[in-house]
Amino acid sequence: MPEGPGIGAAAWPSEQTTPVSRGEQTSGGTDPDHPHLFHLADWGGNVFPGGSLQGANSENWPILVGQKGAVYLARLAVGGIREPHWHPSAWEINVILAGLSRWVFVGPNGTQDIFEADKGDVIFAPQGHYHYFENTSATEELVALIVFNSDAAEPKDDIGIGQSLTSIPNDVLSAVLGVPVSIFEQIPTVPGRIVIVKRPDGQTGASRSES
User: Which residue segment(s) compose the domain that 152 sits in?
Assistant: First the structure.
């Protein structure tokens, strides 16, 4: 896969737009003989410090144009965290294919949900709900298949907490959270999406919580 941007990068590079050859066979993307078939696992994606995303959407799978659907394969390394975010115009269904994960959701009217999900579990993120997930295994990669009811490329329907938080003046954050403004002066400006990060070595996540 091509290297993706690091923390604070302005945008993703475009996803791979030409197939990678494997002998005489097409190894990724839309199958040359079957327009209904997309070889997702072999399609070039975006690589980040804590994992990767490979996606099929209307920009690289023509059959999805106007169908309001897209699918992504997310892989989070040990210590990987998907940046807290929300999708303004799509819901998503997440299927855990391998590994252990922790999820946090915040919705309208002060609702909140925190839980663990393992292989075979399905998680639904309503449109516009703030959420994030992370790999909670100390030894195993987390793999999730994510389906959206939008055919847009994922970066076009994703608002991350990094840029959102650092776009707000420090004095406003101080007033809202009731802590000294000096706390926020230590936070660097994030001009773009972070997407997937990796915990520093030795740092552990929160303890398992019941939903």
Answer: 48-158
CATH of the domain at 131: 2.60.120.10
Sign of CA dihedral 95, 144, 89, 154: negative
- Domain count within the chain: 1
Q: How many Cβ atoms from other residues are within 10 Å of residue 23's Cβ? A: 6
Buried b (16+ CB within 10 A) or exposed e, 195-207: bbbbbeeeeeeee
Cα separation, 136 vs 143, in Å, equals 12
Assigned domain for 186 exists: no
Q: Which of 50, 52, 74 minimizes the C-alpha distance to 201? A: 50
204-210 contacts, C-beta under 8 A, 24 or more apart: 205/102, 205/134, 205/136, 206/102, 208/102, 208/116, 208/136, 209/114, 209/115, 209/116, 210/115
What DSSP designation does 108 have? G
Exposure string (b/e) for 165-186, b if CB count within 10 Å is 16 or more?
ebeeebeebbeeeeeeeeebee
Instruction: Work out the mean pLDDT of the chain and round it to a whole number.
Output: 86
1: pLDDT strictly greater than 50: no
pTM over 0.85: no
